[in-house]
Amino acid sequence: MSYKIVIIENNVKSFSAPMEEEMAKTIKHFEGELIKIRTGRAHTSLVEDIPVSCYGQPPMALKGLAAISAPDARLIIIQPWDTVTLQDIQKALTSSDIGITPINDGKIIKLQLPEMSSSRREELGKILIKKLNACKEAIKSVRKDFNNILRDAKKEKLISEDFFNRLEDVLQQVTDKVSKVADGLSSKKEKELTTV
Hints:
Layout: H1 13-35, E1 51-52, E2 60-61, E3 66-72, E4 75-80, H2 86-95, E5 103-104, E6 109-112, H3 118-155, H4 161-194
Antiparallel strand pairs: 1-2, 3-4, 4-6, 5-6
Helix pairs in contact: 1-3, 1-4, 3-4
């Protein structure tokens, strides 16, 4: 990745602000991934981005074709704006990896979420760990990129040795802080998964 950064001697913000911004993007992505992990409660995000092919057009996200709601903890209701798309939506839901058979009554589609088994909870726990590790790798990647920028600036004598050391400390502090946020989000999700 290339970042547009101007490191100004004795101005830590000139370096830390863009770095924090980039790391915040990894947390935002991680939060989006966590929403997709089902915790036993119905949530529209489980289905809203499922691609649906209809009208002979390229696939589009389900949320662009229907109103989606979760009226209770284990039910998602999908009401297409055009009933012609009902079959296409049902087909997309059936072929997706959500693992729930859609019920089509001719006007709306219902998804009744089953009670989660302990083996499913374990499986989701493993997925959560994988997603946390991916997030931490992304954080490390951003850290590495910014560290390289620092090294180059020092090598080209754009910054002093002292300022380089100060910025390296800031880099590590921000990395630790963002990693802690990721751990916190993961722990919260793990608690949701284990709560029956």
